[in-house]
Amino acid sequence: MPTPLTPEAIRSAPKVLLHDHLDGGLRPQTVIDLAEESGYQGLPTTDADQLGTWFRDAADSGSLVRYLEGFAHTCGVMQQRQAMVRVAAEAAEDLAADGVVYAEVRYAPELFQEGGLSLDEIVDAVQEGFRLGERRAAEAGRTIRVGTLLCAMRQNERSLEIAELAVRHRDSGVVGYDIAGPEAGFPPTKGLDAFEYLRQQNAHFTIHAGEAFGLPSIWEAIQHCGAERLGHGVRIMDDIKIDENGTAHLGRLASYVRDRRIPLEMCPTSNLQTGAATSIAEHPIGLLAKLRFRVTLNTDNRLMSHCSMSSEFAALIDAFGYGWADLQWFTVNAMKSAFIDFDDRLSLINDVIKPAYAELLA
Ligand SMILES: O=c1[nH]cnc2c1ncn2[C@H]1C[C@H](O)[C@@H](CO)O1
Ligand SMILES: [Zn+2]
Where are the beta strands (DSSP E) in the chain? Predict the structure, then answer.
């Protein structure tokens, strides 16, 4: 008999997370502590429960631009080295406690320079925090490995500088690069030199695309910039037509994405909040998974979206009737799509993920 899909069993099953923002995943109490330590005045409340609710409600805005407003507070309290170490350590611990065995956590170093830190100091602090969190998780009996992605913000013109930063730190756990921030009006080709540099360096990158803007953004990200994965990518649906018999017809771009096995880093709850989808049941993830796109499941921002990998899986189980085999499929998809070495991905799949799901399915 398979293990029942209880919240506890879902939490203990190994999970892989490729799209999680460091500055979107702070514990509410940590935001409050760090505000007090740094003298940050802007918080709407200093009650942890109320603050958690405030972040979620503010993000429930129906637009990406408004969704992003809450980050002023999280970034506002993370301008000192110790704050960055703490936030990174807690992120690793929280993910491990949720059963995540491998995570790629991203942030934009350029947003943390108000206290005078250099970009390299910021990266060093976050790496120190992740290592600390991994050690604490191990002491608590949970094994997690955290890789880092550095984001450049689309609206600032520092993408090449951040790409160089990512390459400089590639041997200490920075596994890739991304661009984030408002999508409409900031096409990925604006930072083409950064992507060309990364390709020349054999470095990995993903691009937030097809979230608040449609197919042209996805097309540019893949065909002009060379993105290996797509952050969100939900709007690939615009290139899929369902006929009256329910048969799906893929346009050329959707076919390309599926044929090339380009991973989609899908974040259903975040998409409901930004208006990119209307409900979990109607979220394109159901159809895209059925059509065997390389779909992965992700949190995006655990604080703003009030979610975890476990809660996102539970929501899909509710909406689509998924079982352990489906959870394993998403997990293996994500592990295959990670930016770490092939050997390491394979050993996580064969030694950690598959044996655990075999037991859950038995
Ligand atoms: O879903 C998102 N789309 C685009 N940008 C985002 C999203 N979630 C967070 N960000 C931004 C806000 C953060 O400050 C930045 C780096 O983590 O990335
Ligand atoms: Zn994101």
Answer: 15-21, 100-107, 145-153, 174-180, 206-209, 229-232, 240-242, 248-250, 264-266, 295-297
* Ligand 1 contacts CB of residue 23 (under 6 A): yes
The ipTM (two decimal places) reads: 0.99
Domains of the chain: 7-361 (3.20.20.140)
Distance, CA of 305 to CA of 30 (rounded, Å): 17
Predicted confidence at residue 220, as pLDDT, reads 96
Phi, psi for residue 99 in degrees, rounded to 5? 85, 10
The tens digit of pLDDT for each residue in 85-116 reads 999 999 999 999 999 999 999 999 999 999 99
Residue 260 burial class via C-beta count within 10 angstroms: exposed 0-12, middle 13-18, buried 19 and up:
exposed
Instruction: Tell me how far apart the alpha carbons of residues 53 and 150 are, in angstroms, rounded to a whole number.
Output: 28
Which residue in 90, 93, 104, 211 is the catalytic one?
Answer: 211
Return the best residue to mutate from 151, 232, 270, 312 for the ligand 1 pocket (most ligand atoms within 8 A of CB): 151
Average pLDDT over residues 305-309: 97
If you count them, how many residues does the chain have?
362
Band (pLDDT 50/70/90 cuts) for residue 301 is very high
Provide the pLDDT for residue 50: 97
Ligand 1 proximity of 180 Cβ (cutoff 6 Å): yes
Please determine, for residue 67, whether its predicted confidence score (pLDDT) is greater than 90.
Answer: no
52 annotated to a ligand binding site: no
8 A C-beta contact, residue 274 and residue 67: yes
Clarify whether 359 is annotated catalytic: no
**CA–CA separation, 141 and 86 (whole Å):** 20
